[in-house]
Amino acid sequence: MSLPSRTIFRFAPSPNGLLHLGHAYSALYTQHWARALGGAFVLRIEDIDIARCRLEFVEAVFVDLQWLGLEWSAPVRRQSEHFSDYLAAADALRSKGLLYPCFCSRAEIRAASDGRVDPDGAPIYPGTCRHLSGRERLEKLESGVPVQWRLDMGQVLDGKKEFVIREAMPDPSCAAVERPAEPGRWGDVVIVRKDTPTSYHLSVVVDDAIQGITHVTRGTDLYASTDIHVVLQNLMDLPSPVYTHHRLIVGADAEKLSKSKGSESLAGLRALGITPEDITAQFSF
């Protein structure tokens, strides 16, 4: 699959809460560079987490972005409507013997951990289920035990070529350069979760390819996850976008803004009389 000739950027929030200033910065940053490079700005709703994502938050995304003055190309892709695409991608990886079923709980993984952690701070998976026999795997699968599917990173990296990330820094107008990815630091990452037929890593890679995304702009908190994405793109013969990771907007505590921490929402700021101009005046790109 070859990259389209048109430059396409995307902003892809998860509707598990209300957008805050960090989202505003990322969306405005992305639209700024899409316009500067004569490209398209695409909105995607990343709502694979059905338990936490809610329709009211989806609708709030549209309200907030329109209030900020953003415009996007139609249609808006909602991940929850495309699980079949992710199932097909996972099946393709399974058919190559690159995924294996994992039945371990988080508590079991923590108990078996050797102390190593991945870039997100989670324990590196010790490989417990990787060593199950075919019969043991089949018995567990047939028993209905909750299962997730992990990427066999050892097999992926064994004798394979170096994986590279195409990166334009400090902004997307710069010429893209290649740097080595470091997927080994993630261990055997989850590609299909127990509660949904995909994962963030799998769905975002599939969606970027389907939507023809040429440039990915996102916060530095996702810098390390690019390791996994370029590996999946390579394994599934998908194009790899150019990546730019922008700064994070932080609060008074110098920590990044977060829905889970209750950071002030754009809706809350709007209710206080803050205008879109007040917000955009805080940012420079």
From TrEMBL:
Keywords: Aminoacyl-tRNA synthetase, ATP-binding, Ligase, Metal-binding, Nucleotide-binding, Protein biosynthesis, Zinc
EC numbers on record: 6.1.1.-
Organism expressing this protein natively: Pelagibacterium nitratireducens
Family of this protein: Belongs to the class-I aminoacyl-tRNA synthetase family.
Aminoacyl-tRNA synthetase as UniProt keyword: yes
Entry protein name: tRNA glutamyl-Q(34) synthetase GluQRS
GO molecular function annotations of the record: ligase activity
SUPFAM superfamilies: Nucleotidylyl transferase
Signal peptide residue numbers: none
Flavoprotein in keyword set: no
NCBIfam families attached to this UniProt entry: PRK05710.1-4
